[in-house]
Amino acid sequence: MIIRIRWRHRSGSVRVGPAGVALVWVVLALFVSPCKGKGPEAPMDEEQIQEIVYTYRDSSVPPQNHRSYVITVRPEKVEIVVDSYGDVLARKEHKITREEFNGILESFKRNGIRSAEVGTPDEGCVGGTGERVSCSNGKKQLFSGTLDHCGGETWGNLGGGVSAFAEDIRRLVPDLERLLE
C-alpha cells in the first residue's frame, strides 16, 4: 500500500511520496518515544547499580525524639547514619556479602520500585515523614524517588512496594533499633 500526503501550501499543492511519508513517521517516532532511563516504561539495568541509598526523614518532633537516618548499601558493606535535625547521633558500618547485596537488588525489582506519581500533595499538612530511594553506579545517579507521608496521605514520585523494600534494607542493619534510641 502506498500512502501519499497532499496539502495546500500558499505556493500551491505539495505532494509527498512514500519516502517522505516514511521520513515523517521516523521523525514522529523520535519525538514521541521515551528517552532511555527516563520514566517508568524504560527499564533500568540493575547490573549497573553499585550503591542503593534509603533515606527516612522523621516527623517534626522535639530533638530528643527526632531520628532520621540514611542507609547506604554497597556490594561489600552497609552504612547507617542516624541524625536529629542534622546532628549526627550514630554512624556505623557492617560488612555484607555480595549475595546480600544481590538480595537487595532482587528486592528492588520484586517490589517494583520505580518512578511513578503517587497521590496529590497536601499543602496544608506539616510535620509528616518522608522516604527517598536512590541508586547509582558509584559515579552517576541512575534513579531517585521520594514519598511524603502526612495526615494519613502519601504523595511523591516513588512507586512500588516501598515499605517492603525499606524493610529488606533495614534488615541489613542488625542493631538498627538500638541506634535509633
Word description of this protein:
The protein has 181 residues and is of the alpha+beta class. 23% of the residues lie in helices and 39% in strands. The chain has helices at residues 18-32, 98-110, 162-170, 176-179; strands at residues 5-9, 12-16, 51-57, 68-73, 77-84, 87-95, 114-118, 129-136, 141-150, 153-159. The strands form two sheets. An eight-stranded antiparallel β-sheet has the order 6-5-4-3-8-9-10-7, with helices on one face. Strands 1-2 form a two-stranded antiparallel ribbon. The longest helix has 15 residues, at 18-32. It starts with a strand and ends with a helix. The model is unreliable at 1-14 and 19-42 (pLDDT under 50).
Class from secondary-structure proportions: alpha+beta
Specify the number of helices: 4
Q: Low-confidence runs (pLDDT<50, min 5 residues)? A: 1-14, 19-42
The main pleated sheet reads as:
8 strands, antiparallel
Rg estimate, integer Å = 24 Å
Q: What order do the strands of the largest sheet run in, or round the barrel if closed?
A: 6-5-4-3-8-9-10-7
Order of helices and strands: EEHEEEEHEEEEHH
For the termini, the CA-CA separation is: 73 Å
Strand content: 35-45%
* Average residue pLDDT: 82
Please give the number of β-strands.
Answer: 10
Helix fraction, binned, reads 10-25%
Shape: globular
Short description, anyone?
The protein has 181 residues and is α+β, with helices and mostly antiparallel strands.
